[in-house]
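Appendix B. Extra example for self-study. Work through it before the problem class; the solution is given directly after the inputs so you can check yourself.
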Amino acid sequence: MPKVIENVGCPYCGCSCDDVRVTVSDDGKKVLEVENVCAIGTEIFKHGSSDHRIRSPRLRQPDGSMKDITYEEAIEWTAQHLHKAKKPLMYGFGSTNCEGQAAAARTMEAAGGMLDNCATICHGPSFLAIFDNGYPTCTLGEVKNRADVIVYWGSNPAHAHPRHMSRYSIFPRGFFTGKGQKKRTVIVIDPRYTDTANVADYHLQVKQGHDYELFNAFRMVIHGHAADIPDEVAGIKKEQILEVAEIMKNARFGTTFFGMGLTHSDGRNHNIDIAISLTRDLNKVAKWTIMAMRGHYNIAGPGVVWSWTFGFPYCLDLTKKDHAHMNPGETSSVDMAMRDEVDMFINIGTDAGAHFPIPAVKHLKKHPWVTIDPSVCMASEIADLHIPVCICGVDTGGIVYRMDNVPIQFRAVLDPQGLLTDEELLNKIADRLDELNAQEA
Amino acid sequence: METVKMTLVQQPELFLECYSVTPDKFAGKSLAEIADLPAHEGKVQWKLGDFFKFEGKSGATAADTKIVVNGDVRRMKRFGQQMTDGEIVINSDADMYIGGWMRGGKITVKGNADSFLGIAMEGGEILIEGDAQNHVGSAYRGDWRGMSGGLIRVKGKAGNDIGTAMTGGTIIIEGDVFIHVLTHAEGGTVIIKGDVEGRVGGQLVKGDAYIFGNLLYPLPGYKMIGTVEKEVDGATYTFDQYIGDLGERKMTKKGEIIYGNIYLKK
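Solution. Structure tokens for the complete assembly:
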């Protein structure tokens, strides 16, 4: 008899939807149906019961082929190389639960290495801006129940966060927003006419890379210098800036959602920094909040877990053992890889092979490379060692942090069939490292 | 002033953190004691003597000590970090954090400097004969106090984030700069003798920027108020004066609003 599991968490985007309904076969090995989830989320659940999943670690042989080995052998190989390396780097955690991230912190503290997460190539600049300027944010529940003005700046949820608009921001009817999208004003600021811009009331087609100037102009309005704004700023006419600024000033509750358009264009953290400054200015005359459109379902997790463990959310240098250091530009994964500053690489729960610049991958590939990932991906295919693990949210549960830093309990829907979780694997590696460190001492 | 000459004999495999190379740490020590000072390569703690040979003699105090670094040290960072007095001359390119948190003395680099040059510097002088990368005289991440005193002169070009959150002191870049000059600053002076792409004085509360070349994308938050003559770096020039950032909070003094200034050379 197929089993229906309600209120399942979806391990895809930062929306971390937790209302998914999954039907599994009576032996618990096959996903039969998935409801309340976008097309991408559906594929992740279906992939969980794919016949093509790799269920055993694979070690590259001298002839270039991959040979199946046991988990014990993979743990020993990884621990020995971590122990030997002067500056190993563990990077990833876009698709891992917080328990796995905490075990990674333990492992890299024992190894005396570098620990970084996908924020380093997405919302890392947002962290830097938050360090500098604070974070006047809220939860997605508050947006749903209160917000009457929504700004999407440099983000395209129609493609990247498929249920964001329907579940949290534009369309849902909340406690104080009973008329849903009819009473909401949606402003999209993006150099492209995206599918999100298509549903907006206002689309400001800002000149690519000049968002900072546009923020500056909006702030001038709030500071009483509207008359001094030039006729056009960053490709936007002064009249339109004043019109949109008026809507912002009159919001009952406004939220700015920002994405890679700001963090990945020139200035990076400064674009977010001035967005936060604008939010602070707007709070003099209205109620405004701001939120990063975090990419993965638990990419907020390592920021939270490592902040309470070490004091920093990403780009951690744990080589000094008695204190942590963090300075992106120096301790960030891509910069270290480009400078050939690390001598071992562990890629976990993301695909550095696909996302890093090719020169960075070439440098990393000179040294031992371990990929810990449930799937076959570019990083697994160029690795010296590929260790498959459970898919969080499918084969194993755990705590994840949604994009608004709200923790959500995910649950397993399939039998893991002998696969280790990230937490189990990393704790076994850390146990072995502790033994090696004790022997050396 | 006594001089210690240190010459590279062994390149590190990765990058070496030379936080011990300061007149303060060298002063009053024998060459053998200096060679025993620590340096980190990742998690491995080495001694300076594993990479350098030492000649000469250190002074009794930092003020009496000059350090000359020879050899290709572009894979070595943190020279002169937190130094308070004395002098360092590096006859090579060098890596990050040269003169970071420096309080006094002088550093000369005969080649290029990497990022985080003179971050959070409080006093002293840094001269880079080549180019510098990003975050010159800026604040450390999360700190709202960047460079607060002293002088940084870069004879070549520099990247972005020049004097971010600066509160005092002077930065002179003789070549071109990319973006973000004096962002978030509450004081200090930045002089750029080349061109700047844009974002000069964004979120600036107070401070002065002098641009001799072309400012490609000026921020909307600056308003021209007139033309002035000013003496800058030993010569007098005529500038158009702009005040701002009009989108940022401002302090008042005796009832008058204190603006930041951008001076564009005519």
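Self-check: The mean pLDDT of chain A is 96. If your reasoning did not lead you there, revisit section 3.
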